What does this fold into?
Amino acid sequence: MKLGVIGAGAWGTALAQVIARQGETLLWAREAEVVAAINDTHENGPFLPGVPLSPAIQATGDLSALTDCGALLVVVPAQFVRAVLRAAPVGARPLILCAKGIEAGSAQLMSEVAAELHPAAPLAVLSGPSFAREVAAGKPTALTLACADPDLRAALVARLAGGALRLYGSSDVIGAEIGGAVKNVLAIACGVVAGADLGENARAATIARGFAEMVRFGLARGGRLETLTGLSGLGDLVLTCGSTQSRNFALGVGLGEGRAAAALLGDRNTVAEGAATAPVLRKAAQAVGVEMPVVDAVCALLEGASVDAVIEALLSRPLREE
It folds into this structure.
C-alpha cells in the first residue's frame, strides 16, 4: 500500500522514513524549499537536519498528488488539521491521525474534526512515546495504533510496523488521543519545575499528580484506563516530562526561568502543542466536572502569572486524600 504523509515537520519526516522501508511513500510539505531538499538531497534540513532520508520518499507540495495513496497519515500540528483536511483528497481512504492536541475553537479531538469533515473515512490514531530523531535513526520505539475496526487496525499495524518500530493495537481511539493531548500540557508543567530549579521531588510529584488528572479527564471523556496507563498515556508522559527534546518541556523550562510566554512561543521554529491545548483542556475539563489543578497552573503561567504565585497557589490548596 502506498502511503501519504501530510506534514513534513520532524515527526512527519521521521514517520515517512520508517514506513518507506516497506514501500513507496509520498510526503507533503507546505514549504517549497523542504520539498526540493528532500527530493534533491534526501534530507530535511529545516526540520530534521543530519538524517539521511530513504530514496523511497518522494516529497510534494501538491495535496492532490495524494490521491494515489491508499491511506494518509496526518502529521500537521493539531490547530492546522482542520484546514489541511478540508483541502486534502480524503474520500473514503483511511486517515491515521498523528497530531496530539485539542482544537482550540471547537474543543474537538482530532478524530472528531476528521469525522466531521470526512464521515466516510475510517479513522485511526498513532500515538505514544516518540522523539522524531530517535525514530528516524532506527532506535527502538513502541507506539499505540488505535482504530475501532479490527481488520483495518491489523492491516495498518502490519504496514506501519517493522524494524525497530513496534506497534500495539487498540480499539480505544478516544483514550489514545486524550493521553497525547494532556501529556503535552503536563510536559510544560514539568519543564517549569526544571526551569525554576524546584528539584526532583517536585518533578516526580508533578508527573504523578498530572497523570491522575489525565486519568480523571480521560475516563470522563470515554477513554479506557488501560489505554491511559499504556504507551499513549503514561508512556508518552514519562518521555516528554524530562527532556529538552520535548518542545513542550523546553517551553516550560523557559517559563520556569521567568521568560514571557509570548516571547518563547514567537521564537520557535517548531510548535509546542501544549500551549494551544492548555486553555481548551481547562474549559473541557470544567465542562465534564473534572478538576485539573496542574493544567490550571500551566494556563495561568501562559497567561502571564508569575512562577512564585502559581506554585504558592498549588501548595496552598486544601489537603485531601489521594
